[in-house]
Every structure is written in structure tokens, then in C-alpha cells.
From TrEMBL:
Superkingdom in the source lineage: Bacteria
Motif (Histidine triad motif): 101-105
Organism: Lacisediminihabitans profunda
Active-site residue numbers: 103 (tele-amp-histidine intermediate)
Record-linked PANTHER family: HISTIDINE TRIAD HIT PROTEIN
Domain HIT: 9-117
TM region positions: none
Protein name as annotated: Histidine triad nucleotide-binding protein
Molecular functions per Gene Ontology: catalytic activity
Family matches, as Gene3D superfamilies: HIT-like
Length: 117
């Protein structure tokens, strides 16, 4: 990120400049509950670096960090939705991405069958 760019909403949450319900944190990753949940369990698992805008950039730039995002998602879903969950990475505005700091949506708990909505 260049110095003239504003930090993302998630960077502000990581810095505790704005509040969030933090459900997991280590040196590299933070996980929070989504402010507008689309499922009974809706968490966001977020690498702390804002170097990567989307999952493709993360996969290319730091595959170990992507694997850690998946492992944390699995762990949180095991605790909160019996280990069953949907993992979503929106990529680009037409796919619904609104925050350009890579994050995984962990959706769980009685999701509609056979849809991606
Ligand atoms: P995207 O649309 O980029 O895939 O996902 C961004 C997500 O961040 C949305 O589901 C939105 O509800 C969530 N979100 C946006 N601002 C905040 C916030 O200030 N706090 C929390 N907890 N979630 C947020």
C-alpha cells in the first residue's frame, strides 16, 4: 500500500481504531464476526497484512498464509458450526467484493441447500 492510500476498514479494526467482535487473533491473522451476517455463523478471517487485495494475490504471494487462513476457518467452524461451513472469497466488485483487503467469509449453520447465495 502506498503512503497516500487510506488503510482498509480491516486494518482499522486490527489497530483497534474501530470496534469489532474479535473471535481469533495471532501475529498474522484476525477473525471477527461480520457486521451484517448472511448466515447463523458468519465470520471474516483476515490476514493482517493489507498487501493482498484478493485470494488470487494471496495465493501467488504467500501460499502458507492462505493455508493458515483456511486452517483458522476450519478451527472456528469446528467450534461454532460443527465443522461444517462454506468458505467464500469474493473477488472483484461484480462478485460482491466491497473491501479490497483479502478476507475469507466463513458461513455456517443451516445454510440453504444447493445454492451459493
Ligand atoms: P466483501 O463484500 O468485500 O466480500 O466482504 C466485506 C464484508 O465486511 C461484508 O460482509 C461486510 O458486512 C463486512 N464489514 C464491512 N464493514 C465492517 C465492519 O466495520 N465491521 C465488521 N465486523 N464487518 C464489516
Amino acid at each position: 500500500m502506498s503512503e497516500t492510500q487510506e488503510s482498509s476498514i480491516f486494518t482499522k479494526i486490527i489497530a483497534r481504531e474501530i470496534p469489532a467482535d474479535v473471535v481469533f487473533e495471532n501475529e498474522r491473522i484476525i477473525a471477527i464476526t461480520d457486521i451484517a451476517p448472511k448466515a447463523p455463523v458468519h465470520l471474516l478471517v483476515i490476514p493482517k497484512t493489507e498487501r493482498y487485495r484478493n485470494v488470487g494475490e494471496l495465493a501467488a504471494g504467500d501460499p502458507a498464509l492462505l493455508a493458515e487462513v483456511v486452517a483458522v476457518s476450519q478451527q472456528l467452524a469446528t467450534e461454532r458450526s460443527g465443522g461444517e461451513f462454506r468458505l467464500v472469497f469474493n473477488t472483484g466488485p461484480s462478485a460482491g467484493q466491497t473491501v479490497f483487503h483479502v478476507h475469507a467469509h466463513v458461513l455456517g449453520g443451516s445454510l440453504p441447500e444447493g445454492t451459493l447465495g
